[in-house]
Amino acid sequence: MSIGNEGCLLQREIAHIVGTDFIRHVSDADVIDGVLPKFVVEPGTPSDVSRVLAIAHDRGWQVVPRGGGTKLGWGNSPRAADVVLSLCRLDRVQEHAPGDMTATVEAGCTIAALQETLAQRGQRLALDPLWPGRATVGGVLATADSGPLRWSFGPPRDLVLGVTVALADGTLARSGGKVVKNVAGYDLPKLLTGSFGTLGVITQATFRLHPLPAAVRHLTFTLDAASVGAFIAAMRECSLATAAVQIRAGTEMNALAYVRVEGLPEAIEAKAEQVMQRANAAGADVSAAHAPAEDWSARERLFEDLEPTSLVCKIGIPPAESQHLLSLLEREASQDVRWRLVFQAFGVGVLRLELREPERSVVDRLRSRLAEFGGSLVVLACPAGMKPDANVWGEPGDALELMRRIKQQFDPHSILNPGRFLGGI
Predict the structure, then answer these.
(1) Distance (Å, whole) CA 137 – CA 162
(2) 298-383 placed in CATH 3.40.50.150
(3) Is the pTM of this model over 0.85?
(4) What are the tens digits of pLDDT across the range 284-294?
């Protein structure tokens, strides 16, 4: 691909910073929703990231930050993409302070690699996002991805204590601290979490940690659709005994509930018994409660082998309204829409739809019905031809103007991930 004289000059300037081995022309694997960038840059330090951004900012080139690339297809298609800024070389665990139960890690480190390091001292980051072997710390924070452990430990924004971020103009800023009690200053870590890389490029993050559990039990229950709401309420009543609760359901199948119980070896059986009693009272079939453990990766399988008419969405609803969600999906199935759902009991799930035709009307109808009881729907994966018209984020609501002002303050020239976030930010 020709990048012109200016592009060649810029490429040489960036190569002087990162080294000639770490800037290259794009391949088919670097295409983002049909948008072909000019080249890929792999800085080796936070300082190099900031210097590359400063050059791109001065030239007015659009930059797409990338970690493991596991969620690069999420969000709107970029309006433009000149440079892919890969954080793959920033993969070090900078500091692990077991006594303070904190760790500082570079943004390109995978979640699995971080967990392996922490486990050597009996600790963990209580976060279980999609594809942990490839998903990076920076990407998980940028997309605010979380999994079943959020039931007990909260979302990523509750676990991150501080960040180092390269802003669009190349400024390298730090916010937060390395100790759990630090509350001074503006909470930049929470603002950046879930911003899809549109406000800055996270280069380093500090997290609060938790101990690895001494003992773990997994319980499996069968539910009919009418019992799901009561089951979730029952699990909330014994939340001290449950570390994670996940429900699977779909067209022409009973709902299955998976519960993770953690604790001390001498207390784990009593906790498991408490959960089974609550589940039984809520109408669950506990006869197979000790079946082999669910591997907790069912969400990932919803993204596999997508057909031209497949649609994968993120669903959010108030937990108390989970019964309405299943009823709604069962009604949709009667209209020749097949579905599979992996739902976390705190109110967030991944839904896969198999449509007869790739049409936006199904998304609009579901989104409208969900809104009636406080729910939302975001399209994560859909047929290529459907995405430009799919309105993947839905209606932004009253917060859009505030979000635009924040974007204007952090990135006035829309250098970072232009157009990919809510409302085309």
Answers:
(1) 13
(2) no
(3) yes
(4) 998 877 766 66
